[in-house]
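Input chain follows. Return structure tokens only.
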Amino acid sequence: MLGAFANAFRTPDLRRKLLFVLFIITIFRFGSQIPTPGVNYSNVQSCVNDLDNSGIYGLVNLFSGGALLQLTIFALGIMPYITASIILQLLVVVIPRLEALKKEGQAGQTKITQYTRYLTLGLAVLQATGIVALARSGQLLSGCDKELLYNNKTSTFLVMVIVMTAGTAVIMWLGELITDRGIGNGMSVLIFTQ
């Protein structure tokens, strides 16, 4: 196993692709640690450390790599994209226009991928709005009486939603970069690294 990995680094093209994937993974994990503007990071950390990770919070932390409960810029992770992909796959069966696009080959698949991206951003806006509203009301981390946000202004709310949605768009782009220039399916690699 280790020998195969060492051999992969001896091939220049494969080494370049592996290093590129490692670079993108580093960016992804770094973005999962940067708090969204307006978040009182010390209060969030204190509340997250006090939580019992065996219940629903443990599950949420598992699927977001710990980013969701810490309200980071990549808090939504890859989940909006996965949800959008599943919805579009189901709609292809139901909507004749989408089914016709699927049968068109590469051009149709490109159009369906574009629809998936748009739906991903829509779902990211909805999810970010819900998460920020929960944080704003103090219900995101039940049992925590500390303020998670510095203020409850609408401008802070909007900035947080926009940043989390943009974070999802960046994750989607990073996944596509891995698929195009790296090794394997980029979205799968990012799911694995969460």
